[in-house]
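FAQ
Q: What does a multi-component entry look like?
A: The components come first, one per line:
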Amino acid sequence: MSIRHGLLALLERGPMYGYQLRAAFEESTGATWPLNIGQVYTTLSRLERDGLVRPLPENDGGQRPYQLTDLGRAEITVWFVTPISRTDRPRDELAIKLALALTTPGVDVRAVVQTQRTSTIQTLQELTRLKNRSDKPSDLSWRLILDAMVFQAEAEVRWLDHCEASLLRHQPSALTPTPAPEGADTDDRTEANR
Amino acid sequence: MILELRGVHRTHGTGETAVHALRGVDIGVAPGELVAVMGPSGSGKSTLLNLAGGLDSPSQGAVLVEGEVLGDLNRKQLARMRRRHVGYVFQDLNLLASLTAVENAALPLELDGMAVRKARKLAEAALEEVGLADLARRFPDEMSGGQQQRVAIARALVGERRLVLADEPTGALDSTTGEAVLRLLRNRVDAGSAGVLVTHEARHAAWADRVVFLRDGVVVDTTSPVGEPEQLLEAKA
Ligand SMILES: Nc1ncnc2c1ncn2[C@@H]1O[C@H](COP(=O)(O)OP(=O)(O)OP(=O)(O)O)[C@@H](O)[C@H]1O
Ligand SMILES: [Mg+2]
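Then the predicted structure of the entire assembly, as tokens:
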């Protein structure tokens, strides 16, 4: 998600100035995504350039509120109805790491998997604690964001379990630390990787 | 420590066909602590729980509940310890088909000599906790799988169990009901019991204070104690 769309969505509620936008953003994302005020202003000026928002006259406190234009309103409507494509997200470093671990001689793949699993579950424990701290209805949106992080972490663990089980079935040798590749060992791996 | 496993081994069978279900496991669970056990199928999770609950005995090593070595207790003492102090949710539920939900939940208390009326009353309270107050008079075959599972949980939590052992208690439950069950378990532990939760689901294991990873009968890793959540957010920022 972009900050751009976040700010547009907030302006749908009515005109706001920079500090208000920042506070509202943090409130609705439960501070899982802190913004600095500089980011807010840079984004606002780009939105203005693109005709998605327009500045209103400064208020008495010298703050300038921004208002959504019709174009901006259309943009945010499209954003809400369009699914987020997985392929737009950054490449999965973990998947790449495991793929490389598999084909790099001397790497204990099982240990790589377990180290990641322990770390991810530890993150899950922390998220669960955080989530259970509050059950006020007003915190619902914040808990749902935490839930999203929880389910993503869980998916990662399930994928790790799957990797380990597949390795066991198809390439048991990869699960024991292999000595440095000299001679026959290298052939073995090429064989198993086909 | 409410539960302690010291150098526990468990071997099924002998000779060629021997299966080493556990090979030297050390685990301690203190009051107020919930430990989750994760591991692939066949890694020894249920074996570990059976030993902790005194349903099976180690081939080597010792299991202590509230400081008592289970192997030193006679049959009668062991049975009493199990009924009075240990709540157990089995992987295969083990509800008695001829008893209603409330009778099933009250059974451990009645076996322990509690007056029937009092036991039923506590059982009803436990059923209410798992959201089954209305189904108290139903028989297991008149309930869905998830409802039966919740009866089994009520049975494990009824009375003042100091040690609660749960083997995949959320198996047949949808995610919100599963979470409600974990909350019950967590509350019981926060009130001073010790808990061991076997689960395949990372999301559920995450309710524990510590997660222990078993593989081929050996503890291969353990999460360190949970830190302050704020650090997590700072790290993400
Ligand atoms: N009574 C028995 N006789 C022989 N082998 C047994 C017996 N009980 C368990 N085992 C073996 O001991 C090992 C551990 O079994 P256990 O039931 O503890 O696994 P688990 O981790 O609970 O698996 P799952 O996730 O499938 O429930 C397995 O290899 C199993 O086949
Ligand atoms: Mg099992």
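Q: Is there any commentary attached?
A: Sometimes. For this entry: Helices of chain B lie at 45-52, 75-85, 101-111, 116-129, 145-157, 175-190, 202-205, 229-236.
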